[in-house]
Design a protein that fits this description.
By secondary structure, the protein is an alpha/beta fold. The protein has helices spanning 2-17, 28-44, 48-66, 70-77, 82-111, 116-135, 160-185, 190-206, 230-233, 239-250, 276-287, 338-342, 379-391, 414-429, 475-479, 482-503; strands spanning 213-214, 219-225, 257-259, 290-298, 304-312, 319-322, 361-363, 366-372, 399-404, 433-437, 443-445, 451-454, 461-467, 470-471. The chain has 2 domains: 2-210 and 480-503, no CATH class; 213-473, Nitrilase/N-carbamoyl-D-aminoacid amidohydrolase (4-Layer Sandwich). The chain is 47% helix and 14% strand. The protein has a 6-stranded mixed β-sheet with strand order 6-5-4-3-2-13. The chain has a 6-stranded mixed β-sheet with strand order 7-8-9-10-11-12, covered by helices on one side. It has a two-stranded antiparallel sheet with strand order 1-14. Helix 6 crosses helix 16 (482-503). The longest helix is centred in the first third of the chain and has 30 residues, at 82-111. The protein is globular, with a radius of gyration of 24 Å.
C-alpha cells in the first residue's frame, strides 16, 4: 500500500509546489525539479496506467493551487456556497489534470523498446508540451499557468520570440528530463549534461538579440486604475459614481493615449447619459489626446459586446474593438451549464464575439491593438492578428494594450500572474504591452518583457509614462505555435514508429 500511495502523494505535492514557480514568487528552478521528480516516478511506474495517475495528480495539484483564486469569484462575489465553489475549482483542476496524465501515459507506452535517454530527453518533454498546448484550446482554452509562463525571468525567456510560451515549456520539460535521466541512470549522461549547459546559455544569448526596432517617436500614455470594488461595480447606486470617476480621470490631464480598464463604464454605450461621450470627445479634440475606453457596446437587437471605444483626432472614424475570445461562464454560458451559472449572483450573460482580425487604433506615430482581459492568454491569436495586418499591408500594431477587470478574484496571486502573462506576450512579439486594470496590475511592459512602471494593486491612481512603439515581425509572429507543436509531434510520432517496429519486427524471408 505504501509503495502505491507514496508516488501518488509525491506527485500531488510536487504539482502543488509548482505554483511557487510563477509570479509573484518566481522560483522557476523549483518547477524543473518538480517535473524531474514526476518524470522519474512515471518512468519507474509499473505500468502506463500508473504513470497516468501520477501525471493526473501532478496536474491537478498544480492547477488547483495556482488558480485557487477562482474560489473567490464564485463564492465571495458570486454567492455560491463555499463547499460547491471549492468543489468546482477541484473538478476543473482534476479535469485539466487528465491531459497531463494522458501525456505521461502516452510517453510510457511509447517507451517500450526505446532507450531511457530517448524517453527522458525527447518523448516525455514533447508529450508534456503537447498537453500544455491542448489545454490552450480545448473547451475554448484555459492556458493560465502553462509551464512556460514561469520563465519570464529565466534564461529560457530568450526563446520566446522564436517558439513562444509552449516552446519554452518544452525546454523546461527537457531540462527536467535531463535531471530525471541522471537520477534514473545514477551516473552522468553526456547528452543530458550538455543540454543542461547549452539550453540556458542559448536562451541567454538569444535574449540579447533585438527582434524588432523602434517605430516613430515615443508617445505619452496615462493608464487609469479606478479601483472600483467588484461588489459595487454593477450596483445601480454606484453607476453614476463610476461614470463621474472615470470622466474626471480621463479629462484630468492630456496625453497622447489615455486608457481605462475593461468595462470601466459599466453600462451599454447607447445608455450613457446624454452628452457624456460628447464631453470626452471635446476634451480629446481640444487636448490632442486619444482615448480608449472600456464599455459594453450594443450590436443588433439583443446582441452586445465587451468592447473598447476609441476617441481621438488620429482616428478618421469612430473606433471600436470587440472582444473575440470570450470567457466560459463569464461571457458566454456553455451548453448545458445554465444551472451552474444560476447558482451565482453575477451579472453574467452571453456576449457577442468580435472578429479575430480587427484594425489597430492610431495614436500619433503608433498603432495600438487592444486585447481585453482573458484574451492576452492566447499569444497565437495576437500573433495571428499582427501577421494578418502585415500580409494585408495594413498598419501593424506597434503597441499592445490589455484592458482588464479581474477584481473578481480579489487581491490574490491572480493579479501578478496576469501581469506575467502580458510579459510573455511582449517577449513573443517584441512589442510593449500597456495594461489598464480596475484593481491591478496596471503597468507598462517594454518590448523585452520587463516591467518599467506599475501601480500598486488595490489603489486608485493613474500611471503616466512615455512608451516607444516597435515594428517588425518576430519568428513567433510569423509561425505562431506551428514550430513548437510541429517539432513536438515529430518527437512523439517518430519514436512511436520506432518502438512499434521494435515490438513487432518484420519476419525475415526464408532463402533456399
Amino acid at each position: 500500500m505504501r509503495t502505491t500511495l507514496f508516488p501518488l502523494i509525491a506527485s500531488l505535492l510536487a504539482g502543488g509546489a509548482t505554483a511557487l514557480a510563477f509570479a509573484p514568487f518566481g522560483w522557476w528552478p523549483l518547477q524543473i525539479v518538480a517535473l524531474a521528480l514526476l518524470f522519474l516516478l512515471a518512468q519507474r511506474a509499473e505500468s502506463p496506467a500508473r504513470a497516468l495517475v501520477y501525471g493526473w495528480a501532478f496536474g491537478t495539484g498544480a492547477i488547483a493551487v495556482a488558480t485557487h483564486w477562482l474560489y473567490v469569484s464564485m463564492h465571495v462575489y458570486g454567492g455560491m456556497p463555499s463547499a460547491m465553489a471549492a468543489l468546482a475549482v477541484l473538478l476543473l483542476a482534476a479535469g485539466l489534470g487528465l491531459l497531463y496524465g494522458f501525456a505521461l501515459y502516452v510517453a510510457r507506452r511509447i517507451a517500450r523498446g526505446l532507450q531511457v535517454p530517448v524517453v527522458m530527453l525527447l518523448v516525455t518533454p514533447a508529450c508534456w508540451m503537447l498537453a500544455d498546448w491542448t489545454r490552450g484550446w480545448i473547451f475554448t482554452g484555459f492556458p493560465w499557468v502553462a509551464t512556460g509562463y514561469a520563465h519570464t525571468d529565466s534564461p529560457l525567456a530568450g526563446f520566446a520570440p522564436l517558439a513562444g510560451v509552449y516552446g519554452i515549456g518544452f525546454l523546461a520539460a527537457l531540462l527536467a528530463g535531463c535531471l530525471a535521466l541522471q537520477l534514473q541512470l545514477r551516473r552522468l549522461h553526456a547528452a543530458a549534461i550538455v543540454l543542461l549547459l547549452v539550453v540556458p546559455l542559448a536562451g541567454f544569448t538569444l535574449g540579447r538579440l533585438a527582434w524588432t526596432e523602434p517605430l516613430g517617436q515615443p508617445v505619452s500614455v496615462r493608464l487609469l486604475q479606478g479601483n472600483v470594488p467588484q461588489n459595487m461595480k454593477f450596483d445601480a447606486d454606484q453607476l453614476n459614481a463610476s461614470l463621474e470617476l472615470y470622466r474626471l480621470m480621463l479629462t484630468e490631464q492630456a496625453a497622447d493615449l489615455i486608457a481605462t480598464p475593461e468595462t470601466a463604464l459599466p453600462m451599454l454605450s447607447t445608455r450613457l447619459p446624454a452628452g457624456y461621450l460628447g464631453q470626452l470627445a471635446a476634451f480629446a479634440a481640444d487636448s490632442g489626446s486619444s482615448l480608449l475606453i472600456g464599455v459594453p457596446a450594443a450590436g443588433a437587437p439583443g446582441l452586445y459586446y465587451n468592447s473598447v471605444l476609441g476617441i481621438g483626432a488620429g482616428s478618421a472614424s469612430a473606433y471600436r474593438y470587440d472582444k473575440h475570445h470570450l470567457v466560459p461562464f463569464g461571457e458566454f454560458i456553455p451548453t448545458g451549464f445554465r444551472w451552474f451559472v444560476d447558482m451565482m449572483r453575477m451579472p453574467l450573460g452571453d456576449f457577442g464575439r468580435g472578429n479575430l482580425q480587427q484594425p489597430a487604433f492610431p495614436v500619433k506615430d503608433q498603432w495600438v491593438l487592444p486585447n481585453i482581459c482573458y484574451e492576452d492568454l492566447f499569444g497565437e491569436e495576437i500573433a495571428e492578428q499582427l501577421l494578418a495586418a502585415a500580409d494585408r499591408r495594413q498598419p501593424v500594431a506597434s503597441l499592445l494594450l490589455n484592458v482588464s477587470n479581474i477584481a473578481w478574484f480579489g487581491n490574490t496571486i491572480a493579479l501578478p500572474q496576469h501581469l506575467q502573462i502580458s510579459r510573455m506576450r511582449s517577449l513573443e512579439t517584441g512589442r510593449p504591452m500597456l495594461r489598464a486594470t480596475n484593481t491591478g496590475m496596471t503597468a507598462v511592459v517594454d518590448a523585452r518583457g520587463q516591467v518599467v512602471a506599475e501601480l500598486p494593486p488595490a489603489t486608485l491612481g493613474t500611471l503616466a509614462a512615455r512608451v516607444q512603439g516597435m515594428q517588425g515581425l518576430t519568428p513567433y509572429i510569423r509561425l505562431g505555435n506551428a514550430l513548437p507543436v510541429g517539432l513536438a509531434l515529430l518527437a512523439v510520432v517518430l519514436p512511436w514508429i520506432r518502438s512499434r517496429r521494435a515490438a513487432n519486427p518484420l519476419p525475415r524471408c526464408k532463402t533456399r
